[in-house]
Design goal:
Blueprint: H1 2-12, E1 19-26, E2 38-45, H2 50-63, E3 68-71, E4 77-79, E5 84-90, E6 97-101, E7 104-108, H3 113-122, E8 125-126, H4 138-144, E9 147-148, E10 151-152, H5 153-156, E11 157-164, E12 173-178, E13 195-203, E14 205-206, H6 209-225, E15 233-236, H7 248-254, E16 261-262, E17 265-267, E18 274-277, H8 283-301, E19 310-312
Parallel strand pairs: 2-5, 3-5, 4-19
Antiparallel strand pairs: 1-2, 6-7, 7-13, 8-14, 9-10, 11-12, 11-13, 15-18, 16-17, 17-18
Helix pairs in contact: 1-2
């Protein structure tokens, strides 16, 4: 596998490309849960090289039947203890503000959500306050339609620029897509498309800078009070459902499951819908814990929980 990957990288590199290339890179260093085995190869292209290099790598890897996983902020995933086979394409260096076009603020996909919120606030633009203090990247947020405090990405999203690989014959194109149908609770149309998110623009409104800052600080303090920063975790473990009549965390708490643990993974004593790594947890511990909690909730309360966390990499027996 490594030799095939090296050959693909060599074919895609150009003289002006600067790429951080790491083989057998532990994914525990790239996720907020701090778990995960090695990626066969992790690639982090610099901003100027990202679009062209990424498109070429993905196209050639597919032709060679080598999987490619797109890594955002690593904030909503659990990587298997066996790691990820193939190539992990890290978007982290492809970050920053692109433009402020009459209130439409655009960012590269690797920009952190908190950085985007800070940038909007510095310009006196309101609409991204709900992202403040939230880990993860803009690309990941668009892909999953990130949601908090009664707002979601789709509420502010104006357009998304993608590399589209859906054409026949291995061809690809860069396309700007206006926001439309296909968005829902923690869902976006990009989850069913063969596309790499490059950038996103957001419709924002001028507002009082002090009010924007107060809202952002309130959100950060709320996250802190709920223990989001106390241990390695990935925020909400399970999705909420209006059909439950109450938050998932409350259901888990009322069933006495707060503090329940498997290995180094634990349902946070302070919040029923947060799984934490108490130290030395394995990815398998997190999966086993969530499966057991879901089974108990179904048996005792009749609710079927859907994980919000994505389990990626090489799982199985």
């Amino acid at each position: 596998m490594h030799d095939k990957i090296r050959a693909i990288i060599d074919q895609c590199l150009e003289a002006n490309h600067s790429i951080d290339i790491r083989y057998d890179e532990p994914m525990s260093e790239h996720t907020t849960f701090k778990v995960g085995g090695p990626a066969d190869c992790l690639l982090c292209p610099e901003a100027g090289s990202f679009p062209g290099f990424s498109a070429a790598v993905i196209s050639r890897a597919r032709a060679a039947n080598i999987p490619v996983f797109i890594l955002g902020g690593g904030a909503n995933i659990v990587v298997s203890d066996r790691g990820i086979r193939g190539i992990v394409l890290d978007t982290g260096a492809y970050s920053g503000l692109i433009a402020n076009d009459e209130g439409v603020l655009s960012f590269y996909s690797g920009t952190s959500m908190d950085e985007a919120a800070e940038c909007a606030a510095s310009l006196g633009l309101s609409g991204l306050e709900f992202l403040s203090g939230m880990p993860g990247s803009i690309g990941g947020a668009v892909w999953m339609n990130a949601r908090a405090y009664g707002r979601e990405i789709a509420d502010a999203l104006a357009w998304t620029e993608v590399i589209d690989f859906s054409a026949n014959g291995g061809e690809f194109s860069v396309t700007r897509i206006k926001t439309g149908a296909g968005f829902g609770y923690k869902r976006s149309p990009f989850q069913g498309r063969d596309q790499l998110i490059l950038a996103a623009g957001f419709n924002l409104k001028p507002s009082d800078a002090n009010e924007i800052r107060r809202a952002m600080e309130t959100n950060r303090q709320d996250r802190k009070s709920k223990g989001h920063y106390s241990f390695p975790c990935a925020g909400s473990a399970f999705k909420n459902s209006r059909g439950f009549g109450k938050p998932t965390g409350q259901i888990i708490d009322e069933l006495g499951l707060c503090g329940f643990s498997v290995g180094g993974a634990q349902i946070a004593p302070f919040h029923g819908n947060i799984v934490i790594n108490t130290g030395g947890a394995a990815a398998a511990d997190i999966l086993s814990l969530m499966n057991e909690v879901a089974a108990r909730v179904k048996t005792l309360a009749g609710f079927i929980l859907e994980p919000e966390i994505l389990f990626v990499g090489e799982w199985g027996e």
